[in-house]
TrEMBL record:
Pfam families: HTH_26. Residues 13-62 form the HTH cro/C1-type domain. It comes from the Bacteria. InterPro entries: Cro/C1-type_HTH, Lambda_DNA-bd_dom_sf. This is Transcriptional regulator. CDD domains: HTH_XRE. GO terms for molecular function: DNA binding.
């Protein structure tokens, strides 16, 4: 998939656990794992906004396009 999700990088930079992140964003840890592992087919803008708010980052810090 040409879109790479970099949530794990941002979590590591902030020393935040997946559980804490999931709780603060309003997702289940299982859904965070789906996003982290690149298995998600879509992300709602409201979810992306919540992730950026919690991590104090921009969408481009979480999503990267990589050519196949």
């Amino acid at each position: 998939m040409p879109i790479v999700v970099r949530i794990d990088v941002e979590l590591a930079r902030r020393k935040m656990s997946v559980g804490e992140f999931a709780e603060r964003v309003g997702l289940t840890p299982a859904n965070v794992a789906v996003l982290k592992n690149g298995r998600a087919k879509a992300v709602r803008f409201s979810t992306l906004e919540a992730m950026c708010r919690v991590l104090e980052c921009q969408p481009g810090d979480l999503l990267e396009w990589v050519e196949d």
